[in-house]
Amino acid sequence: MEEKKDYQDAYEKEHYKAVYLANRVAELEDQVDDLQFKLNRIKNNPIWKASGPARKCMHFVIRQKDRLKNCGSLSGVIAKVRYKSWEKKAMTHYGTQSFPSAEERQKQEAAVFERMPKISILVPLWNTPESFLTEMIGSVQWQTYKNWELCLADGSDDAHAYVGEYCKRLAAQDSRIVYQKLAKNEGISGNTNECYKLASGEFIGLFDHDDILHPCALYEYVKAINEKDADFIYCDEATFKSPDINKMITMHFKPDYAIDNLRANNYICHFSVFSRELLDGTELFRTKFDGSQDHDMILRLTDNAKHIVHVPKLLYYWRSHAGSVAGNIEAKPYVVEAARGAVADHLRRHGFKNFTITSTRAFETIFKISYEIIGEPKISIIIPNKDHVEDLRRCISSIVEKSTWENYEIIVVENNSETKEIFSYYDELQNNPQIRVVTFEGKFNYSKINNFGVSLATGDYVLLLNNDTQVITINWMEELLMYAQRPDVGAVGGKLYYGDKTIQHAGVVIGLGAHRTAGHVHYRQKRENLGYMGRLCYAQDMTAVTGACLLVKKSLYEQVGGLDESFEISLNDVDFCLKLRKAGYLNVFTPFAELYHFESISRGLDDQGEKAKRYNEESERFRNKWKAELEAGDPYFNPNFSLDKSDFSLRV
Asked: Domain for residue 305, yes or no?
C-alpha cells in the first residue's frame, strides 16, 4: 500500500507539473504573438526601412569584432587566412592534377618488378549508391599496376538489387573482379571477413565502398614492397566533398609509423595494404569492434609487421557525405566506444594494466592514455643557473608549491653568478632538504653543466629543466614519468608556452628552419589551438624534444653519453634525442605536462655577434654529424610539408 501511495504522489506531482508547463507555454505563445505584431509595425515604418544599410554595416563590424576576439588577435586572423588560402591553392596539386600523364601511365603499366604480387582489394558492399559504386570500381580498374583482384561481398537489401546486377556484369567481363551476394548483411566486420574468404592474393588491401583510389596507388605500394620489403603499407589521404575529388575538405599528410600516435588516434586508417601472412591464425575484422574494426586490425597487424612503410603521397580519397563517418561522427556513435575498446585490448596485449583512455578536446576518437606509474621512482631535477634570482625563484616555487609528485630532488647547478641576491637565495634554499646547490667551475657550457648535475643526481630519472620555466600542470612530473618509465621510451618532453600563452615547444623536427638543423612545430600558435589534425591534443612520438624540460632514465642518459659537450649552447638536446633514437628508443612529446618557458631570459638570443657565429658553427657540426638522418628527413614530419615553416604548410 505504501508503494502505491508513493506512486500516486509522484504521479500527481508530474501531472501538476505538466499542467503548469502547458499553461506557461500558452502564455509565452501569446507574448510572442504580441511581439511579432509590434515588430511588424516597426519594420513597416519608413524610418526603419531607410536605416537598413547603416544597420547592416554596424552588425558586420560587431561580427568582425567578435571574430577577432575569438581568434585572439588581428595577426592571428591574418595568419589563419593566409594558411587557408595557401592550403586551398595547394589542394589543386593533389587531386586529378596529380594523376599520371599518358606517358607516365604507359611507363608504370610496363614496369616489371622482381616481385609482382597479386593484391586482393576487399570491399564490403551495402546499399551502395550507384554513382559511388561505379566510381569506386572504376578507380580500381584504372590502376597502373594490373595484378590486382577486387573482392566484393554484397550485403545489400532487395531494394538495392542494382548493386548485384552491376557487379555480376563487370565480373563476367573482368576475371579479376570476384563477386558474392551474401545471404544476409553481417555488418562492416562480417561483410569484410566474407570478402577475405574470396581473396587469393599475397597482399590484402582494405577499401571502402564509397571511396576512390589514385590511379598510381597500387604501383607505389608494389614499389615499396620491392624496395623496402614492406609487409604493411599505408599512404596519405584526403576527405572530399562528393562527388568531386578536387573539392577537398581536408588533406591528411601522415607521419611514418608511430606507435604512440596510433594508440591515441587511428592516423593510419586508409589505404592499408598488408601481407596476408600477418593474418595467419588471426581474424581480419573482429565484430566486437564494429565501427572501429580497422583501428583494432591495424594495431594487431602492425604489432606483427617487420617493415611498416608509409608512402608519403596522397593516394586515397575518402568521400564525405551524409551518414559517413567522414562526414559526421554522430552518424555512428558506437565508433567511439569501439575505438576505446580496440586501444584497451591492444594495451593489455602489451602488458599494460590500470590505464585509462579518455576522449580529448580534438575529437571523441582521439584519446589521452594515462598509464599506471609503477612504484615511486625518484626524479632528479637539474637546473643550471647564473644570477636571475627572480626567474629561479619563480621556477623553484612553482615546483614546490604545485607539484603533486613528491619523490624528487632539485639540483641547482650554479655557474658564474655575480649578484648578492642570488647567493642570498641559495642560502634560503638550503632550508629545503629536497634542494641542493652545487657549483660548476668554468665558462658557460650547457652540456657540461647538465652532465655535471646529472653525475651528482641520486634519482632514477633526471629531468633537465631551464631556470626560466614555471609549472602550470600540477601533475606534470607524473605525465612525463608515465612515458619515461616504458622500456621503449627515451626522452619525454612537455608542452611549453611563452608568457603570452603562445606555444614555444610542442616537439622538435629535424631539418626544420633556416639552418636546416631542427625547429619547433606549432611554434607561436595559441594555447587553445588543436594543432594539425589534432596533434596538439595527444601524446605522440617525435624525433626530439627540448632540453628546457626533458625527462629520461638516468641509466639511459649515461648509456648514450649524456649531452655532447662539443655543442656548448645549442642543439645539444636534439643531438641527445637523436642518440637515444639511434640506440633504439622512442622520444615522446606530451601536451599534458604544461609549463611556461620565458625563453632566453637568462642568456639572451643567439641571433647576433659572437652568439650568432657560435650558433652557425654548432649548426654546421650538427649537419655533418647527422647528415644521413637529415637527408632521410624527419620520420614524424611528412615530406609534403615545407621545412621553412612550423605550421605544417604544404610544400608546393
From this structure: yes
Has residue 202 been placed in a domain? yes
Q: What would the DSSP string read from start to end of 41-57?
A: HHHTSHHHHHTHHHHHH
Q: pLDDT band at residue 603, thresholds of 50, 70 and 90?
A: very low
C-alpha cell of residue 636: 614524424
| Domain with 570 in it | 379-632
What is this structure's pTM?
0.86
Greater pLDDT, 325 or 18: 325
- The span from the CA of 443 to the CA of 416, in Å, is 8
Same domain, 549 and 404: yes
DSSP character for 142?
T
Burial class (CB in 10 A: 0-12, 13-18, 19+), 471: buried
Q: Do 165 and 88 form a contact (C-beta atoms < 8 A)?
A: no
Q: What does the block give as the cell for 219?
A: 604501383
In whole angstroms, give the CA distance from residue 463 to residue 408: 10
- Clarify whether residues 249 and 315 are in a common domain: yes
What is the rounded (10 degree) CA torsion for 202, 207, 212, 217?
Answer: -30
First to last CA, the chain: 80
Taking alpha carbons only, the member of 234, 240, 309, 300 closest to residue 269 is 234
pLDDT band at 555 (very low <50, low <70, confident <90, very high): very high
Question: What number is the average pLDDT over the span 545-559?
Answer: 98
CA torsion 125→242→142→192, rounded to 10°? -20
Radius of gyration of the chain (CA): 30
- Pair 560, 575: CB distance under 8 Å: no
Q: Are residues 318 and 418 in the same domain?
A: no
Q: What is the dihedral of CA 106, 110, 115, 119, to 10 degrees?
A: 50
Provide CB contacts within 8 A for 293, sequence distance 6+: 188, 189, 192, 285, 286, 287, 338, 342
Q: Give residue-wise pLDDT tens across range 423-475.
A: 999 999 999 999 999 999 999 999 999 999 999 999 999 999 999 999 999 99
- For residue 600, what is the domain's CATH number? 3.90.550.60
Contact 415, 383 (CB under 8 A): no
Beta bridge partners of 518: 510
Residues 553 and 628 in one domain: yes
Give the pLDDT confidence of 275-319 residue by residue, as tens digits. Answer: 999 998 889 999 999 989 999 999 999 999 999 999 999 999 999
Same domain, 422 and 314: no
Q: Do residue 156 and residue 231 come from a single domain? A: yes
d(CA 82, CA 87): 8
CA 103 from centre of chain: 38
Domain end (from 332, 353, 368): 332
Same domain, residue pair 601 and 466: yes
Rounded to whole angstroms, the Cα distance separating 413 from 415 reads 6
- Structural domains counted in the chain: 2
**pLDDT class for 610, splitting at 50, 70, 90?**
confident
Q: pLDDT tens digits, residue range 343-376?
A: 999 999 999 999 999 999 999 999 999 999 999 9
Alpha helices in 44-101 (DSSP H): 46-50, 52-71, 74-91
Give the CATH number of the domain where residue 106 resides. 3.90.550.10
Question: Per the domain annotation, does 34 fall within a domain?
Answer: no
- Longest Cα–Cα distance of the chain, Å, equals 93
- Checking DSSP bridges between strand 379-385 and strand 461-465, what pairing results, if any? parallel
Q: Give a yes or no: residue 19 inside a domain.
A: no
289 with 198, same domain: the answer is: yes
Q: Which of 236, 250, 256 is nearest to 314 (CA)?
A: 236
- Tell me: cis bond preceding 243? Omega within 30 of 0 counts: yes
